[in-house]
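Attaching the record inline, Q. Sequence:
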Amino acid sequence: MTPDTQLPIRLGVAGLGRGFMLTLPSLMADERIALVAAAAPRAGSRQAFIDAFGGRAYDTVEALCADPEVEAVYVATPHEMHADHVAMAVAAGKHVLVEKPIATDLAAAQAMVAAAEAAGVHLIVGPSHSFDAPVDLARALLADGGHGEVRMLQAFNYTDFLVRPRRPEELDTARGGGVVFSQAVHQVDVARSLLPSAARSVEAVTGAWDPGRPTEGAYAAILRCQDGSFATLAYSGYGFFDSDEWMGWTSELGSPKDPGAFHKARQQMAEYASPQAEQAAKRSRTFGGAANRNLPPAHEHFGPVIVSCTAGALRLTPTGVWSYTAEGARFVECPMRLAPRTGVVDALHGAMRRGVPPRQNGRWGLASLEICLAMLDSARRGGAVQLRHQTL
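Structure, as predicted:
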């Protein structure tokens, strides 16, 4: 039977934390999505979901996956739980959208991919910034051939990620914490979207400079591809310099940013009287009240990205892409979508309703995870790490 392309996807959400909150405005704006159920450990979050959307709310992900009304599950739980929760959804015959990274170890990710393929359900990994509209525009500009062959990509980002309120597992690398698992996957996904061939090796160093936040807060990596092209990726989440200064003071989420507010996160961290106070601050950023319907005036981004080619270069911005060739510079505006993460819904809806295979599928997520794990391995042991599970 051919799916009804006009029928909204009945989506269940596993986890009502910060990841869900960031995607929620895009889900609410899109008529292709109907939020019908959720699972969360806190009763207050479950009741808030029912108050906002109706439907049902469960205290376990297993119960959510057993709901016959749920067609697809958005797994937005902590990184270390992804493998178990995806397995539950796949076993129940649900399609899955899982937050990046797909998992925290390669064997688990491989098992997730194999299970989804055996069950005949779609596994999509995201949102990540590879879904951003300016990335898609840059892909199109590169595909038209006017800039020649892609030879080098540079991506860097300086934020206050590590000094925002964090749960204990977010500061424990073994449990999927730190900026490599949480942030590098964005840059890896963007680089893989724009580079012309699959990666073959990665070499990286990491920095963990705050004893009170005992995980990676910074990294630099070089990603080498099969065809000789390469990418350099750099990130710091220590909250001293803000690279949004070079993005027109547009935040990662596409909203205007107050240049003087950047140091507030570090100042607020110093004011937490106890770990319990920090956890309370973290909970305040999760779902539990009126749903946010505000949509930003610009596209989401993950810091400056420059693509160097044999006949030109591209620079991505929150509103479009600058093109540089021998004829000069021109700006190609990127029209706003319905919502910032409409690309994610496009992938889910395309897969489920129109039979269009998603680019950021399980094997894509597995390849990006392999690079992140290789970055950590390279930083520990020194030298380049060869990659074996890459795909375009």
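The first helix runs from residue 18 to 29. The CA atoms of residues 100 and 126 lie 5 Å apart.

More tomorrow.
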